[in-house]
Amino acid sequence: MTDAHGPRAALRTTVLAVLALACGHAAAQSVPASCSPIVDDAARLECYDRAVGRVPPAAPAGAAGGAQGPMTGSPLPGSASPAPGSAPAAAGLSAQEAAKLERDERRARGGSLGERWELDPGTKQGRFLLRPYKPMYVLPVRWSDDPNQQPTSDGPNNSVSAPQDLRSIEAAFQISLKSKIWETVGGTNLDVWLGYTQKSHWQLYAPSLSRPFRETDYEPEVFGIWGFDQPLLFGWRARFLGLGFNHQSNGRSEPLSRSWNRVIAQAGFENGDWSVLVRPWWRISESPEVDDNPGIENWLGRGELVITRRAGAHQVSAQLRHSLRGGDQSRGSVTLDWAFPLSSYLKGHVQLFTGYGESLIDFNHRQTTIGLGFSLVEWQ
User: Fold this and answer.
1) Residue 19 has pLDDT above 90, yes or no
2) Burial class (CB in 10 A: 0-12, 13-18, 19+), 353
3) What is the pLDDT of residues 100-114, one digit of tens each?
4) What is the longest distance spanned by two Cα atoms in the chain?
5) Which structural domains are found in the chain, ordered by start?
6) What is the DSSP string of 299-322?
7) Rounded CA gap, 19 and 12, in Å?
8) Are 55 and 49 spatial neighbours (Cβ–Cβ below 8 Å)?
């Protein structure tokens, strides 16, 4: 997998530059994000005012919130509490403006691992609620430096005999949802989830080929998530452990059929706006007669590391996969996703991939792709 030649070296430099730019630009949006955890309404609104440069008018001493007990900041018995809407008005924002600002900020920011996986008692949402899972996006333009014109495999009937006429520019999109089907199993913090991810590659710019869907991968899974909150070093916390079964296939006939089954373990960690998922897996073996893609784990990997950074309305993630082998079998991939705000829920989306296995049909094909488009929801 090592390649020190000019184009690959330049590509790696470009990848690092894009990620650095994304994180730097995202950091500029992160100030309001620190306001949302504040419980007190007036204090939270004052935080938003400071973030946007609004200076609230000075209130007479003791007038705001009534008289306070010494050294406590709490109202004395019998003192008047602020009327609804008075705090936003005093801060220079109407109640409607303040509510919209906070709502948009929360929507844009997304949630912690505890919120997204409902790990704590106060975050439980019940069963059968559809929630985002992996990145969800539409990329109208996706460019590849080396389209896989003639897919091959060591399977007995899984190699294409003649090259295809694929375009280097196509469209791609991914949907990914999860839903809890069993909550607090046996009175514990164990929840059982179903997940479904579907990723499609569409030769939209190939009219001579009738614009076919080149590849669609289907990935249902079921997994248990055991939530907890264990402090670690340097502000990090362990938040959950998980174990599940995953099936992934492209639903095609030979010679283009590709599929595999895995048992996947996972562990989740977070520190403020950073989260890390560690996901090793074991492939369930198949007999040589029915195996569409022998040795797929030597290309798509035996595990992945997913690092996510939320900064204000921005989200940057890196997915790193590797075969966990050395020498000629040292292979893997890197996927970078950057979602940035456009309007309310709508976000721009940039994705860069380099390595093996961008899709199942390409499991043993190396390429670099970059896609531009938009996404509608956050992920974790």
Assistant:
1) no
2) buried
3) 666 555 554 457 899
4) 86
5) 33-109 (no CATH), 113-375 (2.40.230.10)
6) HH-SEEEEEEEEETTEEEEEEEEE
7) 11
8) yes
User: Taking 70 as the threshold, does the pLDDT of residue 161 lie above it?
Assistant: yes
Strand partners, 220: 196
User: Is 249 a known active-site residue?
Assistant: yes
DSSP secondary structure letters along 359-372? SGGGTT-EEEEEEE
Q: What is the pTM of this model?
A: 0.73
Dihedral angle over CA of 319, 177, 185, 113, nearest 10:
50
Q: Which of 247, 253, 275, 333 is catalytic?
A: 247
Cα–Cα distance measured from residue 244 to residue 232, given in angstroms and rounded to the nearest whole number: 25
Extract the tokens encoding 256: 């283009």
Q: Around Cβ 77, how many Cβ atoms within 10 Å?
A: 7
The torsion angle over the Cα atoms of residues 349, 238, 333 and 342, rounded to 10 degrees, is 0
Active-site hit among 249, 317, 323, 375: 249
* CA 348 to chain CA mean position, Å: 14
- Each residue of 170-220: pLDDT tens digit? 999 999 999 999 999 999 999 999 999 999 999 999 998 899 999 999 999
Tell me the per-residue pLDDT of 292-318, one tens digit each, with 9 for 90 and over: 999 999 999 999 999 999 988 899 999
CA atoms within 13 A of residue 103's CA, in its CB half-sphere = 8
Tokens encoding 12: 């790696």
